[in-house]
Target: EF hand associated type-2 domain-containing protein
Amino acid sequence: MKKSDFKVVLIGDSGVGKSTFISALINENINKLTHVEKHQPIQLPPEMFNHPECNTTLIDTKCQANQIPEQVKIADIILLMYSIDDNCSCERLQKFWLKGLKEKELKQPIIIVGNKLDLMGVEDNRDYCRIFKVIKQLVKDFSQVEMGIECSSNQFQSVQDVINCAQRSYLYPLAPLYSLVNKALTEGFKKALTHIFRICDRDGDGVWSDQELQRFQKQVFKRNLDQSDIAGIKDMIEEELKDDSNKKKFITLQGFMALQKRGIELMKIQISWTILRFFHYKDDLTLEEYLFQDEIIFDQEAGQTVELSEMALQELKSIFELQGQIITPTQFDYIFYPVTYQTSFPLLQQYHPQSQQITLTQWLSLWNAFSFFNYKDTYKLMNYIGIDIKMSDAFKEQNKKDSWSSVKKIIERKVFHFVIITKNKKKILEEQFNNLSPRITTINSKTYVISIYDEQQAEQLIERSLNIIDFLMIEKSCSFQTAQLIPMTFYDDNISVWTQISNLVDILHSQSYGYSNLQIQQLKQKNSFSIISLTGGITLLVSLTTAGYYFFRYKPFKKMK
Model:
């Protein structure tokens, strides 16, 4: 649930009855006339309204005839009041007030309040729906206008309803979910519903069975559905979609969206927000950031890396296979449809060889490469596209590379990073990479990421990331050197870069893993040091434990006074 403290700012022309409205609101509650000091914030009693969890502050305003009050900047909801019996007051809603608010680029919901209902005749009140005619055009021209309501401050008529509407608009805002102009769900809401639908599609077949619908209802609303309830839901979807695509044993994503649209149009927007907040959506229809703040503890300085687990790869495989044996760029974009932020996921063009249709191997390779450099961003993106998995289950830590025994486990990894360092040939190399770096490829079911640095970049940047580089290919004219223990070779102008990459793969998986004899000796020395340190540590621990045992055994305890 949202924060409970919120401010309602009341604006409108002088003489429309703003102060009288506030006095009526207070007097109606305590059932006697009370003087209310003008233009001072009023704390409204929570028990007076439909949403007692809201601590509502009502702010009256006063300003020059052609000024927008400064208080609108702190408003959560804006009540724009006009006088029903004054055509000039009604015309100024659009020509001055809403125009001025739009120019200030304010985003708060606006409720149009028609005051002085008691001055209209009974026939007018019954037969002429003024408020609808007033806001119909305003809704089209100003997206922040959510609704209109009429009241009479003098007769205490519908005064509390105005605040109830304000609280409802604050707790369950309409604009993020539904366009009154187009009478359609917003794109952001459809993205969120797609995410939720995928999360609840437990078997991953792209539709909800009756059991999945029941589980969703039980999970979110804490109540069970019987068969008559399910049949009623499907009837409602059929009416909205005007077809029988959901009359079978399942509900489609389109059916789920149609159900939400019908609910909003029946003034049951609270249902949609209950669903969204259960699945951790904020008012701007992005997921709560705390969902992605876990961390995996690994030793990056020692060359340890993080890779996707088999469980995560299987989830990604299921999403792919739902589209078929191969996926087109259009299907690729649909998979990422629920994502509401700018992601650095690799472009399709970064895969070598480039093709218009993506295979399962290419799909998993892109994810492997993405997770290699930033597992947190990978986890967030997986969540948005509909994979419900714990971070600890989504990734696994791979071996370190700070000793020879650790290096010998390198064959177990799925992702490797090659870096080419050049002095004079960066432009030529980038052209071979179609001006896209890094490039990603798959060789023998493993993923290889190839980056290009010129010598100056290497000197400035590469030392900080050498611990996640598995092979250096250096142009012979370069003077770049590093003290870190990384396999390296020279770039050959006479051989295709991709042929050289394939050769590096063979070297990387050879008995020496591409390391020179000197590097191997240095790694073995580190390995020996680690064993000696471990042995020494165990000896020290045993000694301390033994000493502690004798200390407590033979030292008498003193009585506490």
Q: What stands out?
A: The longest helix spans residues 517-554. The longest strand covers residues 446-454.
